[in-house]
Design a protein that fits this description.
Elements: H1 6-16, H2 19-40, E1 47-51, H3 57-65, E2 70-71, H4 84-90, E3 101-102, E4 110-111, H5 121-126, H6 129-147, E5 151-155, H7 163-169, E6 174-179, H8 182-202, H9 204-212, H10 237-255, E7 261-265, H11 272-281, H12 306-322
Length: 326
């Protein structure tokens, strides 16, 4: 979004800010490619990655995408997120130059036009829940057809609230629920909130862009995952720490016994044996995956509420137990 030209910004504004246009492009695409995509695949063993932002969901997305066994939404699909096949005909000559950029998050993760990203929320923002249940499989199949793949890979931090809903539609699919040390996650969320708030104050397009994509995780338009119990100051680590507790406590209770959910601890990322087990669970055939996991741990943690941190630690230990794969 920092690298868009004036015309690109205008195009994104027109396409992403109007539900009517997004829905129209989807219906047009679905009608034009219906016969083709229905012949292409009937698979439904897809993978959905979710969890609190800054827990490692992007890293897991990039790792799985590296297997070359999945189709996912990428930067090439912007801004025609709901009509990837139609847009691919017009964008063939736009991505001949494919340099790497560091994300606006300033976290060392780099991307190019072929990189997967969390654009799926545009779909859920464009349709009602009932419509989404009806169109989801069609949308996934359009993405699979465009990329000539059999399995779909999604990274959407907001899907934490749709796990059971999507399971009912795609019962064979797997859900990777990522979690990370609560204090490290909370500090990272606080840092991102400050970074993006400052960026959005300087550039209103960034603020609009994040809203169009449904990214309210941090920044001036941040929306809490759960109503705060005690801490309301977004510039305090305690706000984010409390959100961590409310988020994972609720999902631990609701999802711990659900089928096809794999809880993954961020601290296990460098454990090759663990990933071999996860790959087996996901039926990944690729044996050698060229990917290096990097763990990040900050030491200059701000002062935080000890009793709140103890609550988080209790849930974290329960999640660690759930993440043990046999």
């Amino acid at each position: 979004m920092n690298n868009y030209s004036f015309l690109e910004k205008k195009l994104h504004s027109i396409l992403l800010s109007h539900d009517f246009l997004k829905r129209t492009t989807f219906f047009l695409e679905e009608k034009l490619f219906r016969r083709s995509y229905t012949k292409h695949t009937k698979a439904d063993d897809h993978v959905f990655v979710t969890g609190l932002p800054r827990s490692g969901t992007t890293t897991v997305l990039n790792y799985l995408f590296k297997t070359n066994e999945f189709a996912s939404l990428t930067y090439q699909d912007m801004p025609f997120i709901l009509s990837p096949n139609l847009w691919s005909f017009f964008s063939l000559n736009l991505y001949k130059s494919n340099p790497l950029f560091e994300r606006a998050h300033k976290d060392g993760i780099k991307y190019n036009f072929e990189s997967p990203e969390a654009f799926e929320e545009v779909f859920w923002k464009s349709f009602s829940e009932k419509e989404g249940a009806f169109f989801l499989v069609k949308y996934i199949n359009l993405i699979l057809f465009k990329n000539k793949k059999k399995r779909y890979l999604s990274k959407n931090n907001y899907n934490y609230n749709r796990v059971k809903f999507i399971q009912n539609i795609l019962p064979k699919s797997k859900f990777l629920f990522i979690f990370r040390d609560p204090i490290q996650t909370s500090f990272s969320l606080l840092r991102q909130h400050i970074i993006f708030s400052n960026m959005q104050k300087k550039d209103n397009f960034i603020r609009k862009y994040m809203s169009w994509l449904g990214h309210y995780e941090f920044g001036l338009d941040h929306k809490a995952w759960f109503k705060p119990r005690k801490f309301n100051d977004l510039n305090s680590i305690n706000y984010w720490l409390e959100q961590w507790f409310l988020f994972y406590n609720k999902n631990y209770v609701d999802l711990k016994d659900c089928k096809n959910i794999i809880f993954i601890n961020y601290e296990d990322f460098i454990n090759d044996k663990k990933w071999k087990l996860i790959n087996k669970k996901l039926c990944i055939k690729t044996k050698k995956i060229d990917f290096k996991f990097k763990l990040s741990k900050k030491n200059n943690i701000p002062f935080h509420d000890k009793s709140l941190y103890e609550e988080c630690t209790s849930i974290y230990k329960n999640l660690v137990k759930l993440s043990k794969i046999k």
